[in-house]
Specification:
Chains A, B: It comes from Maribacter confluentis. 2 copies of one chain form a homodimer. By secondary structure, chain A is an alpha/beta fold. Chain A is built from 10 helices and 16 strands. The first copy, chain A, folds into 2 domains: about 150 residues, Alpha-Beta Complex (Quinone Oxidoreductase, Chain A, domain 1); about 150 residues, NAD(P)-binding Rossmann-like Domain (Rossmann fold). In chain A, the strands form 3 sheets. In chain A, strands 3, 4, 5, 6, 7, 15 and 16 form a 7-stranded mixed beta sheet that branches. The first copy, chain A, has a 6-stranded parallel beta sheet with strand order 10-9-8-11-12-14, sandwiched between helices. Chain A is globular and about 65 Å long. The interface between A and B is large, with 37 and 37 residues. β13 of chain A pairs antiparallel with β13 of chain B, so a sheet runs across the interface.
Chain lengths: ~325, ~325
Amino acid sequence: MNTSINLKQRPVGTPTLDDFSLEELDDNFILKNGEMLLVSKYISVDPYLRGRMSDAKSYVPPFKVGEPISSGIVAKVLESKNENFKVGDFVYGLLQWKEKQVSNGEGLQKIDKSKAPLSAYLGIVGMTGLTAYLGLHEIGKPKQGETMVVSGAAGAVGSVVGQIGKILGLTVIGIAGTDEKIDMLKSDFGFDHGINYKTTKDMKAAIKEAAPNGVDVYFDNVGGPISDAVLFSINQFARIIICGAISVYNKTELPMAVAVQPFLVKNSALMQGFIVSNYADKFPVAIKQLATWLGEDKLIYRETIVEGFENTPQAFLDMMDGKNKGKMIVKV
Amino acid sequence: MNTSINLKQRPVGTPTLDDFSLEELDDNFILKNGEMLLVSKYISVDPYLRGRMSDAKSYVPPFKVGEPISSGIVAKVLESKNENFKVGDFVYGLLQWKEKQVSNGEGLQKIDKSKAPLSAYLGIVGMTGLTAYLGLHEIGKPKQGETMVVSGAAGAVGSVVGQIGKILGLTVIGIAGTDEKIDMLKSDFGFDHGINYKTTKDMKAAIKEAAPNGVDVYFDNVGGPISDAVLFSINQFARIIICGAISVYNKTELPMAVAVQPFLVKNSALMQGFIVSNYADKFPVAIKQLATWLGEDKLIYRETIVEGFENTPQAFLDMMDGKNKGKMIVKV
């Protein structure tokens, strides 16, 4: 017996459990040459998946209704007729939300359990770390002594961005939605300042106060009113990395915002959308750097691990709702 | 006797003639060593001056109330105690709105009447041409076969941008506000398509129709609803040059717009504010290229020339109102 989690219907606005279905599969796994049987161990749930649940044009094709969702998964090889993978190997790749599945190995990479915990390959030494590192390097181009603001700072990517900022000698200001998260940013991740956007009445003033010299780099995971407020503090030649816009993913109407154009032209500032997969040629260098910092204890990471395959949709919903601290992962 | 045009008060919203004053000056010009006496010949009126009339923080300091406005001016040397300039030379630089003024030559460059008409040094071989050329090259990075949209296309910068686009092998779509301007874009400047935003009900649909392969480069002179509409057609890796936001310069309230962040992240697109003075090291190469194209008749330019020094404020207001075709210039 096998189980999959499918997209039952396209969510309208905020997704609910009704948008997902658990399907019992009567799979009979007979491997062809080159194939292997995988058992899922850890499943990554990420904000970008919300986009794929809609059928709007985007950089990745939408999920199909009635078919399994897919995301980053760490799996173990149970059987193998593929000469590159042997039984007991662990692999990482974009796989379906199934307890077991067959793969020909395409797009999968073997991972080494001795170098980092398996779940870290979904986070700090996986897409999360790569997104933080490459977004900051390739677009943010930070220089020692500059000031950086990170929104969604307590999230998986945000917490890594802030730590890398500190390693590089920046003043780092994190924005998050609970006092507990703000404390964590400062005490655990070494952020210089934290702003709780849910309890702060005047975000514009709070950012100005935290960044008296203005903002040189803004790593934006959220969009919406928080990002509007940051605009008022940007410096000449500021760089704004648009890594996500979680605040609008569930919106059914076209979101309006403060017009960015006057701010960009006044400050010769740059704003660029960042999608990690466009920088695949830089992954090896970036992973090496992340692993080095991890080994030197310069980077720490948080995970919120939810147990049980069937809880994957709830984990996704909770992550969208900001209930995670650091990377949200399902342990199968 | 001499005359200056001063900023009488800071405009609120759309400027009016009341915001300017004409002052008779009882100047007695006695030159010190190194100085020269200049008589203004051509005065440039430009959208960016509106910003300097307010006291908001910007990339250039605000004009002072009660003092002369300044802009790009072509002047003739009447008397000289400066060894680098002799009587009869023509110079270009940032000068005050005065019929006559004394200068020590700092920031002025000699211009050659035989290479281009004097007024062209305020336009196609001056800041206008440089803005078009460098904005497009440095941020737009156009590639043959791509599609470009230009807003404010019948304006000084826009009409040059479109022509350079055609030289470089792009499909060029211009947006302007009268049918006469649209005709001019296509018949005189070689644009492939023109959209009259004042008579087009659904700009989003009109842009999609004119750019069936999507928009790779958007040279934005206007901001506002026109720029909102372009977002829906941008391609992956699109580059948006924010050269101006004339649609909001007169706004007293903070302008709202469609949130750009989701569009930028979905398309890995870039949006960057462009200010020509940041690229001064590239001026010589750019001027040479512009002059070459001009000599080869690959570039043509339009001027709206208003006669009379005292009409400079009205010329500025008319330019802000879109009454010019090409570069708006006052002949003193």
